[in-house]
Each structure stands twice: as C-alpha cells, then as structure tokens.
C-alpha cells in the first residue's frame, strides 16, 4: 500500500523533526513517553530551569505533540496522541550510519 504525502503529512513530520532537533525537547518527549508529569517535576528531573521548561513545553504544545491537563491549580503534561509513544520507540530502535564529516559532536554541518 502506498501513501501519498500530503501537505499535512509533510507539516506533521516537519513539526516532529523540529521538536526532536533540541535535546531538551527530545528528553521531555521521552520522559512523557513513560508517564504524564508536571512542569516543575520535569524541570527538576532534566536539570533545567522552570522558565526553560515552560518555553519548551509551549513549543511542544504548539507543535501538537503534548497537551496540558488541568489538575487543580497545576497542569500535568502528557503526549497528545497515543501513537506518539510507540513512534518514539520506533525512532529509538533506528540504527543510523552517521557521516562524522557531516554530523560530528558539534552537530550537523551539511548543506
């Protein structure tokens, strides 16, 4: 079965790629893959400030990858779609051959 890439598909992949392009956002998604969490708990677990966590959660909400669920005066965050946890697992199982001349410790420099 062949799926034709629509603009919606391309946009969804671009948002997913953008979210994963930052280590903190990737760590947040992996943490939320395990269980919903509060921003302050995520900030403490990942060793970032609460302001940094707030900014990254806002980005992930904007990308449609996480949602906030009110819980009294706080909000707990969870992955927005149940398909996202297994998709992250599948990405983690990928074995990529990386060209060190392109994607070294400093990041990708390919053009």
TrEMBL record:
InterPro entries: ArsR-like_HTH, HTH_ArsR_DNA-bd_dom, HTH_Metal-responsive_Reg, WH-like_DNA-bd_sf, WH_DNA-bd_sf. Residues 5-99 form the HTH arsR-type domain. PANTHER family: HTH-TYPE TRANSCRIPTIONAL REGULATOR CMTR, TRANSCRIPTIONAL REGULATOR-RELATED. It holds the Pfam family HTH_5. This is Transcriptional regulator. It comes from Paraoerskovia sediminicola. CDD domains: HTH_ARSR.
